[in-house]
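hiii so um. not sure if this is the right channel but i have a protein structure encoded as tokens and i wanna go backwards to a sequence. like what aa goes where. can anyone help
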């Protein structure tokens, strides 16, 4: 059974070039995009196009393409799309939207700061979204609930994706495609 280990991820990314670190964070954010869209469909809230544009700018940076937008503004925009827990219009999908927007903000931050811990924080958003999904189906008071959540197919799929992303950082174009496909798969698992 796979487990989330942020220390191991940070160690692996610390040895990687900046573009690879950022690609890893962007891949986690990419995997969460379908869940942000789902939140928007259910609630009418959020702005998937704006969040997508911020993430696309990160991918452009990773791929060596010019980005005309101010990166700090992009990070601020992504952060502004993290919905408030206290909002009266909160729906179950709000948690996924929070994770998706935060992951994009961390991916942008990883480029600005050059700190691999920001990329790891983006992957943590993916793990937390999967953990939340598993908790919705679990008896949290049952004996062994923690192991049941960790072994849940959604959590294991997210962890597999994180591992795949770590292995694929040297090929960002393929990484992006794989993360998109993985995000669609994860969204199907969660929505069903």
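sure thing!! here u go:
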């Amino acid at each position: 059974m796979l487990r989330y280990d942020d220390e191991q991820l940070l160690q692996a990314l610390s040895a990687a070039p900046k573009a690879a670190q950022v690609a890893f964070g962007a891949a986690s954010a990419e995997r969460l995009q379908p869940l942000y869209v789902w939140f928007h469909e259910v609630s009418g809230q959020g702005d998937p196009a704006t969040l997508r544009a911020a993430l696309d700018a990160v991918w452009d940076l990773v791929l060596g393409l010019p980005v005309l937008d101010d990166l700090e503004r992009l990070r601020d925009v992504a952060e502004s799309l993290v919905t408030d827990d206290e909002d009266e219009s909160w729906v179950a999908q709000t948690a996924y939207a929070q994770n998706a927007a935060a992951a994009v903000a961390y991916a942008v931050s990883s480029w600005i700061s050059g700190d691999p811990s920001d990329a790891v924080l983006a992957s943590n958003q993916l793990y937390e979204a999967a953990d939340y999904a598993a908790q919705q189906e679990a008896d949290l008071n049952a004996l062994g609930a923690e192991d049941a959540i960790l072994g849940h197919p959604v959590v294991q799929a997210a962890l597999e994706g994180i591992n795949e992303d770590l292995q694929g950082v040297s090929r960002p174009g393929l990484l992006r495609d794989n993360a998109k496909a993985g995000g669609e798969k994860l969204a199907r698992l969660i929505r069903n």
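oh and DSSP finds nine helices and no strands in the chain.
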